[in-house]
Amino acid sequence: MRQSLATTFSLTRVPGVAIGLMLMPLVTSAVAAAPETGAPTTPSASPPPVIELQQDDASKANDCAAEPCPTGPEVASERAYLVTTAHPGGTMMRQGPELAISRLHPEFVTRLAAAIREAREQGLPEAGIFSAYRPPAFGVGGFKDKFNSLHSYGLAVDMQGIGAPGSSEAKLWRSIAAKHGVACPYGVDNKAEWNHCQPTRIKMVRSDSPLVKTIKAEGPVNPVNMFEAGKNLIESVAKLLGSFGGAPGSAQRDDKVATIAAHRGRRERVADAGSARQHRNERQRVAGKGQKTRPVRTAATGKTAHTAVSSKTHMARHGARKGREG
Questions:
Q1: Same domain for 164 and 272?
Q2: What mean pLDDT, rounded, does the chain reach?
Q3: pLDDT per residue over 9-67, tens digit each?
């Protein structure tokens, strides 16, 4: 009898325990899903990025960083390459590398990407952008008025991975960049700006330039308008190759030679004018002393020149002619 009761008890209790065990995971899940009140949140391992320049929705809609980019898929691909190969500095990180590169002029983007691609194949594997677009509000750069900087209009970058000033790497980069229409106008020996490159020889945007009206201190009013105005400053690949494609310093020497030639030409013109004036005054002085001039055709030049003849000689010849005639 006892055995029968124990057996009956066991048989009736086991299913209940089994059911309880099956229900426990469901209860545990429900408890874990319930929010904890008053519990501190665990901070993220990486802090959120700091965005210093806030844009309204209209500006974001006009920004070339938004898709689809109005410059087409080819330029978008080259932008992506520049982002991938970049060594973002402080100003690029403050904006985000993608935004800083998206505001470079599209023509400049294609030239720069081609130059970096070749440079990496020719022995400069780390060549890349360090600083790209910079809004005037950042207050970075050598110009007192940051609206003078080509960086503010997407027309200049600072490079990294091209060696130190005056190095063979810097000279190599300069020649490769020139082949693709990218000029480094300050020269490889400039310790501050040897890595500054742009698609034009112009080093400063004047305050009366139409470009100035396309941006604000925080950035472009409309990047497309800024790009359109920037076309006027971009020079042809052939012209920049001719100016910067030779030996380092050749562009500066060429400019110096041209300047000297211009001054020499001016000096020669002034000297010619002075010589002509001197001859004219000499003839007038001689004529004032009773001498006359007569034309003489020279055999060497076939031109007519005037020589002074004294009044006595003229009278003697005139008398001789009269005697022969009589």
A1: no
A2: 72
A3: 444 444 444 444 444 444 344 433 333 333 333 333 444 344 454 444 434 434 554 43
Whole-number Å distance between alpha carbons of 108 and 132: 11
pLDDT tens readout for residues 290-314: 544 455 454 444 554 554 444 444 4
Tell me the C-alpha distance between 197 and 326, whole Å. 90
Query: Is 221 a member of any domain?
Result: yes
Instruction: Please check whether residue 18 lies inside any domain of the structure.
Output: no
Q: Which residues pair with 131 in a beta bridge?
A: 158
Q: Per-residue pLDDT averaged across 220-245, rounded?
A: 94
Q: 117 and 215 in one domain?
A: yes
Last residue in a domain, options 182, 215, 245: 245
pLDDT in tens, 110-119: 999 999 999 9
Residue 317 lies in a domain: no
> In this structure, are 280 and 138 located in the same domain?
no
CB 167 within 8 A of CB 138: no
Question: Alpha-carbon distance 20 to 14, whole Å?
Answer: 10
Pairing outcome for strands 219-220 and 215-216? antiparallel
Q: Which domain holds residue 283?
A: 249-294
